[in-house]
Amino acid sequence: MKVLLPIDGSDCSYDTLKWVTETFDKATTDYFLISITPIVMDFPMTEEVMSATTELLKITKKNLEAQGCRVLAAEQLVGFPNSQICQYADEGDFDLVIVGSHGHSGFTRIVLGSVSEGVLEHCGKPVIVYRKAKKLKGQTC
């Protein structure tokens, strides 16, 4: 199986990677990592930002391989995350795209938008949106 894993260095992204490594068969799954540096108006793209993304991809690839996963690519893209993920998935002929969900709601979601929702709605490939369950205060299980 050929799986696309967009990552962004957030806790949500790490939770998604942890779930993936525990869920999918390492012998039959090939992973492709991408990280998208978003285009933000009036915010210059700096070498520091690009280097941080390159390092994130390098470390994540190394960690996945140390767990026995096959990572065939780790690429940095620049653009709008929703469209870049969908385009990359369609051009790469992936079987599955797995994106994490930050779980933002209300005003935060309106301001930030939802990459996972955009990918789920517009991607031409099957998509899994992973969101780590949060315990409610006082909840024991």
Largest sheet: 5 strands, parallel
**Spatial strand arrangement across the major sheet:** 3-2-1-4-5
Per CATH, the architecture is 3-Layer(aba) Sandwich
Instruction: State the total count of DSSP E strands.
Output: 5
CATH homologous superfamily descriptor: HUPs
CATH topology category name? Rossmann fold
Question: Characteristics of this structure?
Answer:
141 residues; alpha/beta; Rossmann fold; five-stranded parallel sheet; 5 helices; 5 strands; globular
Descriptive account of the structure:
This protein is α/β, with parallel strands linked by helices and 141 residues long. 42% of the residues lie in helices and 23% in strands. Strands 3-2-1-4-5 form a 5-stranded parallel β-sheet, with helices on both faces. The longest helix has 20 residues, at 47-66.
Task: Chart the SSEs and their pairings.
Blueprint: E1 2-6, H1 11-23, E2 30-38, H2 47-66, E3 70-79, H3 81-91, E4 96-100, H4 106-112, H5 115-122, E5 127-130
Q: What does this entry show, briefly?
A:
By secondary structure, the chain is of the alpha/beta class.
